[in-house]
Amino acid sequence: MAEAQTNPAGNTAIAVAAESTVATRMSAPPSFDVADFPVPHGREEEWRFTPLARLRGLHDGSAEASGGLKAEISAPEGVTVEAVGRDDARLGRAGKPVDRVAAQAFSSFEKATVVTVPKEAVLQEPIRVGLHGEGGVSYGHTVFELGAFAEAVVVIDHTGDAVRAANVEFVLGDNAKLTVVSVQDWADTAVHCSQHNALVGRDASFKSVVVTFGGDVVRLHPRVSYAGPGGEAELYGLYFTDDGQHQEHRLLVDHDAPHCRSNVAYKGALQGQDAHAVWIGDVLIRKAAEGTDTYELNRNLVLTDGARVDSVPNLEIETGEIQGAGHASATGRFEDEQLFYLMSRGVPADEARRLVVRGFFAELVQQIGLPDLQERLLAKIDEELEASVA
């Protein structure tokens, strides 16, 4: 049973302890075939928090692809970018779709994109993928593959207005190092559902930083598994949920190889009426995964009344031979002592509030490692806070 701390102020925030195992969270096994997944009705474990009526038909097959998404990829020399068909053997190596929307995305894209970093290549500049919505429905599938001992940074930037469903795969060769930053800076009317699958090779290192600001509904599903011993995965997330927005992050770290490590830390701030954030953190340590070391954390800062958080950490262990395992979930308001300390030293209330929120997110923003993007995201946080004061 997971431990959860709840906001004592009332119903503005809720943290929920896990009541089900990882295995029971999915109503159907992974599959590329849409027909293998029944149309969700909202009572399933994996859909019970999601406002299905606001998915604009992504969940029931009525959302037909209509284009309207501008995609640009900037890659350093030596990196290959290919458009491939659905029968390409590299698709699905990191994992199959686990729900109907992801399966719909796989069956509906025109061409998939495969980005390959050759073995032993150490990229000095990031691979940048810009996805700008111009209205309409779009589906996609992208694979990033790193050869052995390769090192790369990937930035995926979502902007504009769109109804978007996609699968993104990250395949790391032995001893490879990959950092991925996925930014959801959509317009307020956008809908975005995406499954991220990472397969981490022997002694490889994978870091994911997910940043979610915009969108009417955003539902992301990062998943990690290991192709050999010694792999490391770090999953960081930052989200800022406003009036009426639904932002949902559902994570699974599947420890299926020995002597691997994972660390999960997601933080969110919420403000406004009916702002709703959902965080599901599942960690499964299988019988073969001896020597595993894992920890997951979710913290939420509720800035106003009317916001709601559902936080569900879940840790399932099938072997007693582990290095360490733990999890924590906490939801609360500003600490009065922090605000009082700043205000007693002449800092105006609004500025004190901004500094506290910046400090709350600072550790995660620093994980990005790209100064231009870090400055943009901090500016976005300030913009969100200014909007709440206006």
Describe the structure.
Helix 2 (336-343) packs across helix 3 and helix 3 packs antiparallel against helix 4 (371-389). The protein has 390 residues and is mainly β. The protein has helices spanning 100-108, 336-343, 349-365, 371-389, and strands spanning 69-74, 80-84, 112-117, 127-146, 151-172, 177-184, 191-200, 205-212, 217-226, 232-241, 246-255, 261-270, 276-285, 293-302, 308-317, 324-332. It has a 16-stranded mixed β-sheet that branches. It contains four helices and 16 strands. It folds into two domains: 22-333, no CATH class; 336-390, no CATH class. It is 14% helix and 42% strand. The N and C termini lie far apart (42 Å).
List the helices and strands and how they pair.
Elements (H helix, E strand, L loop, with lengths): L68 E6 L5 E5 L15 H9 L3 E6 L9 E20 L4 E22 L4 E8 L6 E10 L4 E8 L4 E10 L5 E10 L4 E10 L5 E10 L5 E10 L7 E10 L5 E10 L6 E9 L3 H8 L5 H17 L5 H19 L1
How would a crystallographer describe the biggest sheet? 16 strands, mixed
Structural class by SSE content = mainly beta
Radius of gyration: 20 Å
- List low-pLDDT spans: 1-19
> Total strand count, please?
16
- Listing every helix as H and every strand as E from the N terminus to the C terminus, the arrangement reads EEHEEEEEEEEEEEEEEHHH
Number of domains: 2
User: Span between N and C termini?
Assistant: 42 Å
Q: What general form does the structure show?
A: globular
Helix % is 10-25%
> pLDDT average, as an integer?
90
Q: What portion of the residues fall into strands of 2 or more residues?
A: 35-45%
Number of helices: 4
The oligomeric status of these chains comes to: single chain
